[in-house]
Amino acid sequence: MSHSIEQRRVRFDSIEGLSREHLGTAGEIWLSDLCLAPWASREMMRLGAHLVGYMASPDPRLVKLQHIDAVIQVTREEIKTALRLMKLFGAAAAFSIDQDELRVALHLTSLQRLKILETVGRLDQLLRTVSPDTASNGQRWVPPPSICEEARDEASDNALRARLKRDSLQVRPAPLANAPERQASVFRPRP
């Protein structure tokens, strides 16, 4: 579900000096800086990662407060607190919560924009030096499933089930000779 930049619920307030192709890198650097900030809470980091994820794949359902609460377990009040702190420390320029929908203008500092340009330049340089034989042409490598691994996983699952069954059938040790006899149930009321 794609929509124009004006309809996006989360975006940077200014990308001056950058192009739209740099937005992925900008999100990574913004999130990295947020997570390294000494004032950032766990809830703020989770919310920041969720917002950057929305920017990479903008679906209006992702910024519904109920969805955010269900996915990252951050309540409405924790979201407000996190956004207030982001605004206070300059990570966000503005935000609004209208009914169940969140809108946020994230802020990139000048230093972050320089990091983005430097990172993009280094990445371009790296990609130019990679030989065509080792280039992936934009495709990501995913390891194929191995028959040996599947058999080993199944064998370990079967061994675990057998051990649990064996342990549950073990006879309890006999009581000590000097120990007083116990009643059948420890939860039986006393007379």
Compact summary:
This protein has 191 residues and is mainly alpha-helical.
Low-confidence stretches: 1-5, 182-190
Query: Can you write the helix and strand succession as a string?
Result: EHHHHEEHH
Radius of gyration, taken over Cα atoms and rounded to an integer in Å = 27 Å
Percentage of residues in helical conformation: 40-55%
* Extended strand count: 3
Structural class: mainly alpha
* Number of H- or I-type helical stretches: 6
What order do the strands of the largest sheet run in, or round the barrel if closed?
1-3-2
Question: What is the overall silhouette?
Answer: extended
The largest sheet is: 3 strands, mixed
Q: What distance separates the N and C termini?
A: 70 Å
Question: Strand-residue fraction?
Answer: 5-15%
Mean pLDDT: 79
What report would you give on this structure?
- The protein is mainly α and 191 residues long.
- It contains six helices and three strands, in the order E-H-H-H-H-E-E-H-H.
- It has helices spanning 23-36, 42-56, 65-72, 76-88, 110-129, 147-169, and strands at 10-12, 92-98, 101-106.
- Strands 1-3-2 form a three-stranded mixed sheet.
- Strand 2 (92-98) and strand 3 form a beta hairpin.
- The longest helix has 23 residues, at 147-169.
- The model is unreliable at 1-5 and 182-190 (pLDDT under 50).
